[in-house]
Amino acid sequence: MANISGFRTALYFLLSLFSIVVLGLSATRLHYTLHVPLGDPVNGGEDFYDRIVVELLVASILTMLWSWFVMWIIRKRKETAFVSTFRGGFIGLAILWLMWLIGVIVVTHMWGDLRWCQIYKPCRILTALVAFVWIGWITMTVIFIVEIIFVSQNGGSRVALHGRWDPRVSTATSNRPNYGFSW
């Protein structure tokens, strides 16, 4: 069984960093739109908020927590009742991936080309938000691909999520045939 736990940990670490950046940019955008300065022409000077920014804020928080949880599982070889196999990991990652996909689609549609207003700080924040949402979603897609390849080569989706299955200590089951060998 291949051991790519270091590579997976690095990918999840990058994902957590990108999530932190998206969290900060989303919070900055929310603060600006909920406290529109006097004389600002945005929305006629009235406070408002973008629903997609709230969705990205929630998605980034959940992704940070998920990334830290998976890194902890990989590092400590933990098998929790919550998620102990790749199947559970795929379900969690798929939910987050869909949330980020919705975010990517909506922010790209709304703010995909803001070159005309780059002299204003709110436009630069939106441009950075679009970029980091794309980077985060691409990172999640790479994690998905790496984990699908790993699972397909190493015994199926019931392998322990930490990726180092040992029948002597693992509570997770494996699809791998035993062939009469006892470990």
From TrEMBL:
The chain crosses the membrane at residues 12-32, 52-74, 86-111, 131-151. Keywords: Membrane, Transmembrane, Transmembrane helix. It comes from the Eukaryota. This is MARVEL domain-containing protein. It comes from Dendrothele bispora (strain CBS 962.96).
